[in-house]
Amino acid sequence: MRGHIANDVSPNPSSGGVNGRLSVAGLKIQLKEPFFSLNDLVMEKTDAEFTMSGGNIRLTALTFDGPMVEGRITGVIDIRQPMQDSRLNLSGNVKPRPDLIARLQESLPAVLENVRTLGTRGLNFRVRGTIDNPDLSMR
């Protein structure tokens, strides 16, 4: 991961945890497996609002915006040791940009009949499993 980070973390007396906000500019994520011929994702801006309490991170809103996609993720990460065993319960929506839509036009299954509307309505997804072995499903 590469980028510039700014953060703001403050105690939350009602939950015994902390509230936080994290902003990252110029984030580059290397994918383990290529996704529609993409080897990495570049995000010009990524912002996360979260609460950490009792071994959980609750993402109130994680928004990202890049040249290929924009989107939003919410949910809970149950922190475990080692970190890669942490459990994911996340859902979100991703909207491909025109360059990615052009790539997807030929690759997406026939069930998604109108690929062009993905740029406006996006694609809902869910991530379950662990950090080391996430299970991604599209809805």
Q: Which strand-content bin applies to the residues?
A: over 45%
Strand order of the largest sheet: 1-2-3-4-5-6-7-8
> What can be said about the biggest beta sheet?
8 strands, antiparallel
Category from helices, strands and their pairing: mainly beta
Number of domains: 1
Q: How would you sum up the global shape?
A: globular
Total count of helical runs of at least 4 residues: 2
Query: Low-confidence runs (pLDDT<50, min 5 residues)?
Result: none
Spell out the helices and strands N to C.
Answer: EEEEEEHHEE
Helicity, as a percent range: 10-25%
- Rounded to the nearest angstrom, the distance between the terminal CA atoms is 28 Å
- DSSP, total strands: 8
Mean pLDDT: 83
Q: Over the alpha carbons, how many angstroms does the gyration radius reach?
A: 16 Å
Summarize it:
This protein has 139 residues and is mainly beta.
Explain what this protein looks like in three dimensions.
The protein has 139 residues and is mainly beta. It has one domain (2-138). Helix content is 10%, strand content 64%. The protein is built from two helices and eight strands, in the order ββββββααββ. The chain has helices at 98-107, 118-121, and strands at 2-12, 17-35, 38-53, 56-65, 69-78, 87-96, 123-130, 134-138. An eight-stranded antiparallel β-sheet has the order 1-2-3-4-5-6-7-8.
Please describe the topology of this protein.
Blueprint: E1 2-12, E2 17-35, E3 38-53, E4 56-65, E5 69-78, E6 87-96, H1 98-107, H2 118-121, E7 123-130, E8 134-138
Antiparallel strand pairs: 1-2, 2-3, 3-4, 4-5, 5-6, 6-7, 7-8
